[in-house]
């Protein structure tokens, strides 16, 4: 089965499983069950078994899952057993917060290049990395063969920045700007908009 055959909704849950399993591993736990994992995550154990069955047989009936094995398999499936270099565009409030977040590096993502268009920021540093002129985005991204980027520019600038990123070879974008991006089919975009999440909560509150 190729990666395109697995429903996106299943793929979207795998990082959540990986995160929970990694926490169990850090607490020296060696074995878990779909029931325990489900209880922790608020997902049914049947759903978890079904999701994992897309990738082969992980657990033995009645003996649970070996956490290390499952973690290794999930990391391989998600392709996070390697390190990923990431470009960050927009060195404002959000860009600063992202560049200072240790959680990326801890889980295999390294912010390698930071870009901004503000002459007052270009040449200054965040967390040891120089802020580069966005005019050099294509050149530098190609030189470092970077395929992942985070966009943290104002909404009005996000599409143009995205077009440049894609032209330079970026295939995965995490967009913090509150706007939908238009990209070719082979480019994957994920959105982080806390207002959209709040609006999903207000419906229930
Ligand atoms: P900011 O104004 O502090 O920073 C934006 C940065 O982008 C500035 O440094 C600016 O010089 C730079 N910039 C503008 N046009 C550019 C271009 N064409 N190329 C490169 N750099 C460019 O804004 P802030 O607060 O950091 O927000 C950034 C984006 O994230 C906005 O779209 C905002 O709406 C959104 N946002 C997202 C949140 C989230 O949690 N997803 C929360 C708050 C804001």
Can you put this structure into words, describing what you see?
The protein has 205 residues and is α/β, with parallel strands linked by helices. Helix content is 43%, strand content 18%. It is built from nine helices and nine strands. The chain has helices spanning 8-26, 34-41, 45-53, 67-77, 93-100, 102-106, 137-143, 155-167, 194-202; strands at 31-32, 65-66, 84-89, 109-116, 125-126, 129-133, 148-151, 172-175, 188-191. A seven-stranded mixed β-sheet has the order 5-6-4-3-7-8-9. Strands 1-2 form a two-stranded antiparallel ribbon. The longest helix is centred in the first third of the chain and has 19 residues, at 8-26. It is elongated and about 60 Å long. The N and C termini lie far apart (41 Å). The mean pLDDT is 94. The site of 1,4-dihydronicotinamide adenine dinucleotide has 25 residues, from helix 5, strand 4 and helix 8.
Q: Specify Rg, calculated over alpha carbons.
A: 19 Å
| Oligomeric grouping of the chains | single chain
- Low-confidence spans: none
- Tally the beta strands: 9
N-to-C span: 41 Å
Task: Tell me the overall shape.
Answer: elongated
Bound molecules: 1,4-dihydronicotinamide adenine dinucleotide
Structural class: alpha/beta
Which band does the percent of strand residues land in? 15-25%
- Global mean pLDDT: 94
SSE string, helices as H and strands as E: HEHHEHEHHEEEHEHEEH
Main beta-sheet strand count, sense and barrel state = 7 strands, mixed
Fraction in helix = 40-55%
Determine the number of helices (DSSP H or I, runs of at least 4 residues). Answer: 9
Largest sheet, spatial ordering of strands? 5-6-4-3-7-8-9
């Amino acid at each position: 089965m190729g990666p395109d055959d697995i429903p996106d909704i299943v793929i979207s849950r795998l990082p959540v499983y990986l995160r929970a399993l990694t926490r169990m591993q850090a607490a020296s736990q060696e074995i878990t069950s779909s029931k325990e994992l489900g209880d922790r995550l608020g997902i049914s154990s049947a759903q978890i078994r079904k999701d994992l069955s897309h990738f082969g047989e992980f657990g033995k009936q009645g003996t649970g899952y070996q956490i290390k094995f499952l973690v290794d398999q999930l990391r391989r499936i998600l392709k996070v057993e390697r390190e990923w270099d990431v470009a960050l565009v927009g060195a404002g409030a959000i860009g600063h917060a992202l560049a200072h977040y240790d959680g990326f590096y801890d889980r295999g993502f390294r912010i390698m290049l930071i870009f901004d268009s503000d002459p007052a920021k270009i040449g200054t540093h965040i967390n040891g990395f120089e802020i580069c002129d966005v005019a050099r985005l294509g050149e530098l991204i190609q030189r470092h063969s970077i395929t992942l980027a985070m966009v943290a520019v104002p909404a009005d600038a996000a599409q143009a920045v995205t077009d440049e990123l894609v032209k330079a070879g970026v295939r995965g974008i995490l967009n913090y700007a509150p706007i939908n991006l238009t990209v070719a089919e082979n480019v994957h975009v994920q959105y982080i908009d806390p207002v959209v999440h709040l609006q999903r909560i207000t419906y229930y509150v």
